[in-house]
Amino acid sequence: MTDNDDETYCMIVDSTGPPQADGPPYAECVLCREPTEYPESYKGVTLCPRCEWQDAQRTACSG
Q: Do residues 27 and 38 lie in contact, with contact meaning Cβ atoms separated by under 8 Å?
């Protein structure tokens, strides 16, 4: 592996997330039903910042 491969081994480089909302109404988190940072009109799974962080902790690369 090259140095660049080491830096991006556990990272998703070409990921696009949901758009950030300019203001209310916000979409509900699918896990805890708290408001998220995403617009209510966004279609797909939306998580609040706390649940996003917890999900990232669960799926983090351990290697």
A: yes
Compute how many other C-beta atoms are within 10 angstroms of the C-beta atom of residue 47.
Answer: 22
Query: Residue 26's beta-bridge partner residues?
Result: 39
Phi-psi region of 15 (alpha: psi -120 to 50; beta: other; left: phi over 0): beta
pLDDT tens digit string along 1-25?
455 555 555 655 555 666 666 767 8
Can you give the pTM of this predicted structure? 0.56
> How far is residue 59 from each of residues 3, 16, 63, measured CA to CA in Å?
23, 18, 12
Q: Is the pLDDT of residue 63 over 90?
A: no
d(CA 56, CA 63): 15
Instruction: Identify how many contiguous H helices and E strands the chain contains and give both numbers.
Output: 2, 2
